[in-house]
Design a protein that fits this description.
This protein has about 450 residues and is α/β, with parallel strands linked by helices. The chain folds into 2 domains: about 5-25 and about 245-425, Alpha-beta prism (UDP-n-acetylglucosamine1-carboxyvinyl-transferase, Chain); about 25-230, UDP-n-acetylglucosamine1-carboxyvinyl-transferase, Chain (Alpha-beta prism). Helices cover about 30% and strands about 25% of the residues. Strands 2-15-17-16 form a 4-stranded mixed sheet. Strand 18 (about 310), helix 9 (about 320-325) and strand 19 (about 330-335) form a beta-alpha-beta unit. Helix 1 runs parallel beside helix 6 (about 200-215), helix 3 packs parallel to helix 5 (about 170-185) and helix 5 (about 170-185) runs parallel beside helix 6 (about 200-215). The longest helix is centred in the middle third of the chain and has 14 residues, at about 170-185. The chain is globular and about 60 Å long.
C-alpha cells in the first residue's frame, strides 16, 4: 500500500468516468480461506483480497499449522482435512470480524487451547450470541474480559447435542460462522441450526451456503432452520474470488454523482454477494445502471431523488447510500441499519457527525438515518474513526464541488488499499489527492 499523509485532500470533482478493476471481496476472501484450510486437498484461490483483514486471517491460519503459499497470481492453501495441526495458539485478529467470528466457531471443537483477541474496537464488538450457541452445543468458550465480547479463550470440548438456536439480529456473521463449522462437528443425523426472530443481512448467509456448496457440503434450508450434514469439505481445486461488491458501491455512486459512466469490473449480475442489490437502490434514486455477468456501470443525466429505503439486505453498501441521499432532491431515510452500531465504529453516529460537518442535515435513530442535502457543501476535515468505509464514503462528497480533507486515510487498507489512487484516476481532468495547504 502506498504511504498516505495523515490528512489527504480529495479535490472537487466535476466529472468522473472510466473503469475500475475491483479488489477481491473481503467477505468472500476470508470465507474461502477458512473453507480451503478446513478442506481435504489443495485449493488455489485466484483474486484473493490483499488487505488488512485477509492478512490477519492468513497469519492466523499459518499459526494453526495450515500450509499457505502466496504468489503474485494466487494463494495456494493446503487443507488440513478438518483438523488444525496446532492445538495451541494465540491469535491476534485486528478488527476483522470476518476472521474473529468464523475462527471462534471453527476452533470451538478443534481439540485445542486457543486465545483470540484483536484491537481495542474488536473488544467492543459483540460475539456473545455466537459464544452462547457454541457453549449450548458443549463447547468451552470463555470471554476473558467483558461477558459477550473478545478476547476469547477456547478449551477442548465434545459436542453435546444435535440442535441449537442462535440469534441473528445483531450480526449475520454469527450464523455464517456456525454454519461453516457445522459439517465437521455434526452428529450422524446432522446438525440443526435454528435462527429465531430476525436474521439481518440474509444475503451474507446465502453467500456462506453457496460457498460451502463449492467445497462439497450441501446445507438444507427451510425458512430460518438450517440442517447441515456430517461431512468433510473437499477442495474445488481452483476458485475465483469475486470483486468486492461493497467496494463497488463507492465508484457506482461516483458515476451517479459526477455524470459518469463509471464501470466496475469483477462483480455483476451473476454475483453471490448481496451488495450487488445496491444497484436497485441506485436505480430507485434515478441513476442509470447497466449490468453484465461480471461488470456494472452507473451514470446519471439528471439529479437524484430522495427515497425511503430498507437497507437490511445491504448494510455495508447502505453507508454509500447515505452520501447519495445528501445529493438527492428531498429527504432520504435509510432503515434497517441497526448493525452499523456494532461495526468498526458506531457508523450511524459517525456518519451523522461527519455529514453535518460538511453541511448536510442529518437525523438519526437506533436503526435508521435520514439525510437532506445542503444548499451549499462546506469544505471540512472529516474524521474516519479507523473505519475504512467512513473514509471512502466521505471522499465522495468532493462531487459536491468542495475539497474534502480525509483524516487517517490509511484506514482504507482494511479492504481497499489503493482506493484513493483508483478514485483519482477516474476524475476528468485527472487530479490526484493532495496534502492540504494552509
Amino acid at each position: 500500500m502506498t504511504s498516505l499523509p495523515q490528512v489527504l485532500t480529495v479535490p472537487p470533482i466535476a466529472h468522473a468516468a472510466g473503469t475500475v478493476m475491483l479488489p477481491g471481496s473481503k467477505s468472500m476472501s476470508n470465507r474461502v480461506l477458512l473453507l480451503a484450510a478446513l478442506a481435504s486437498g489443495t485449493t488455489e484461490l485466484i483474486g484473493l483480497l490483499d488487505a488488512d483483514d485477509t492478512r490477519v486471517m492468513l497469519k492466523a491460519l499459518a499459526a494453526l499449522g495450515v500450509s499457505i503459499e502466496a504468489t503474485p497470481q494466487s494463494v495456494r492453501v493446503a487443507g488440513c482435512s478438518g483438523s488444525f495441526p496446532n492445538k495451541r495458539a494465540d491469535l491476534f485478529l485486528g478488527n476483522a470480524g470476518t476472521a474473529m467470528r468464523p475462527l471462534a466457531a471453527a476452533l470451538a471443537f478443534a481439540g485445542g487451547h486457543y486465545q483470540l483477541d484483536g484491537v481495542a474496537r474488536m473488544r467492543e464488538r459483540p460475539i456473545g450470541d455466537l459464544v452462547d450457541a457454541l457453549n449450548a452445543l458443549g463447547a468451552r468458550v470463555s470471554c476473558l474480559g467483558e461477558a459477550g465480547y473478545p478476547p476469547l479463550a477456547i478449551a477442548p470440548a465434545r459436542l453435546a447435542g444435535a440442535a441449537v438456536q442462535i440469534k441473528g439480529d445483531v450480526s449475520s456473521q454469527f450464523v455464517s460462522s456456525l454454519l461453516m463449522a457445522a459439517p465437521l462437528i455434526a452428529p450422524a443425523e446432522g446438525l440443526h441450526i435454528d435462527v429465531p426472530g430476525t436474521l439481518i443481512s440474509q444475503p451474507y448467509v446465502a453467500m456462506t451456503v453457496k460457498l460451502m456448496a463449492r467445497f462439497g457440503v450441501q446445507v438444507v434450508q427451510h425458512e430460518q432452520r438450517f440442517t447441515v450434514p456430517r461431512s468433510e469439505y473437499r477442495s474445488p481445486g481452483r476458485l475465483l474470488v469475486e470483486g468486492d461488491a461493497s467496494g463497488a458501491s463507492y465508484f457506482l455512486a461516483l458515476g451517479a454523482l459526477a455524470r459518469g459512466p463509471v464501470r466496475v469490473l469483477g462483480v455483476g449480475r451473476d454475483s453471490v454477494q448481496g451488495d450487488v442489490a445496491f444497484t436497485d437502490l441506485l436505480t430507485a434514486m434515478g441513476a442509470r445502471v447497466e449490468l453484465g455477468a461480471d461488470w456494472i456501470e452507473a451514470s446519471a443525466t439528471q439529479p437524484l431523488h430522495a427515497i425511503d429505503y430498507d437497507c437490511t439486505q445491504i448494510p455495508d453498501a447502505a453507508m454509500t447510500a447515505a452520501v447519495l441521499g445528501c445529493f438527492a432532491q428531498g429527504r432520504t431515510r435509510l432503515t434497517g441499519i441497526g448493525s452499523w452500531r456494532v461495526k468498526e465504529t458506531d457508523r450511524i453516529a459517525a456518519m451523522a457527525t461527519e455529514l453535518r460537518k460538511l453541511g448536510a442535515q442529518v437525523d438519526e435513530g437506533p436503526d435508521w438515518l435520514a439525510v437532506h442535502g445542503p444548499t451549499q457543501w462546506r469544505e471540512a476535515a472529516v474524521d474516519t474513526y479507523d473505519d475504512h468505509r467512513m473514509a471512502m464514503c466521505c471522499a465522495l462528497v468532493a462531487a459536491g464541488g468542495v475539497p474534502v480533507h480525509v483524516r487517517d486515510p490509511q484506514c482504507v487498507g482494511k479492504t481497499f488499499p489503493d482506493f484513493f489512487s483508483r478514485l483519482a484516476a477516474l476524475v476528468n481532468p485527472p487530479v490526484a489527492p493532495t496534502l492540504p495547504t494552509g
